[in-house]
Specification:
homodimer; mainly alpha; Arc Repressor Mutant, subunit A; Tetracycline Repressor, domain 2; 10 helices; 0% strand; TetR family transcriptional regulator (chains A, B)
Chain lengths: 188, 188
């Protein structure tokens, strides 16, 4: 999931999603995006290393927030409860941007290089959660297995949220998928 | 994990790993590889679409084998047991090539583009296992969550196998990591 903070970065992001949706990712240049957002290319490159990254803004900060929330959780809670709590902080922020997130997903689905980047971002989240669980005392392997399952659940929950015709919240979908993860694991 | 069948493809694979290890992935050309293997570039491109793919041979066949084994498993076995059985067929084939697999892994670790491709291959395995579990009657979500956890376990088990100073078999490491997945999930 990407976050789009207010200001220049969010304007560039919105302009990019608009243009990628209209004329395609490949046929849109950074100059097109900055012109549409009324900003300079210099500003663009202050925020993003390249055109592709405009679709993955602030994921480092998102990951850092999740890691911090895992680290701050009470010691007696189960690893999965801790992760669920960390991933459902501030989901209203995403709910307010569901339309843009849906369009972003459709753009990602058009190109293998964008899907590969998304996988790399999810792998970075996985690694970060693994480290945060180890810091709470989980073994390396147990932390890695829990993080991988949690990231898969997060991805599926986000998919369900984006596809939900009833528009229920991201928190609802995440809580529901994590419950399903527990039920599923009982049959392993 | 890559498989290296006998013949031209395996010779190209071995020559590539040799050269990538010696002089680096970037500084090795397809011409270098074919010359070292005593084969033509035409033969190379009959087997691989590009230089990168020489490090990911036959993964489509591996995935197809796993899917077939999942589909052929008795209906009364648990989804995870079915996957474990499917992933531990024929692991001796990998054990006989552990040295090459270790060197391959070190090459992958040197470049982000190779790690991203590895992630994409693991995602393809995940998608295939999800489909195979659905065909056995699992719900979409349950199948996807089980497949994701299983692929994570497979990856970690393979890592442990490659790093094991005692050289225990891949089957040993896979069985052991799947047991740990079950123990871990009990604490979720």
């Amino acid at each position: 999931m990407g976050r789009w903070p207010a200001g220049a970065q969010e304007r560039l992001q919105r302009a990019a999603i608009e243009l990628f949706s209209e004329r395609g990712y490949e046929r849109t240049t950074v100059a097109d995006i900055t012109q549409s957002a009324g900003l300079t290319e210099r500003t663009f490159y202050n925020h993003f290393v390249d055109k592709r990254e405009v679709l993955f803004p602030d994921q480092d900060r998102f990951i850092a927030d999740v890691v911090e929330a895992v680290g701050a959780a009470p010691a007696d809670r189960s690893p999965l409860d801790v992760i669920i709590a960390a991933l459902t902080v501030d989901t209203e922020w995403f709910d307010r941007r569901r339309d843009a997130a849906q369009r972003r997903r459709r753009i990602l689905d058009t190109r293998a290089e964008l899907r590969e980047r998304e996988l790399a971002k999810m792998a970075a989240l996985d690694t970060a959660i693994t480290g945060a669980l180890r810091a709470r005392g989980s073994s390396n392997t147990s932390a890695a297995l829990t993080a991988a399952a949690a990231v898969a659940a997060y991805r599926l929950g986000t998919d369900n949220w984006l596809a939900d015709p009833r528009g229920r919240t991201l928190r609802h979908h995440l809580r529901s998928i994590f419950e399903e993860l527990r039920r599923t694991a009982e049959n392993w």
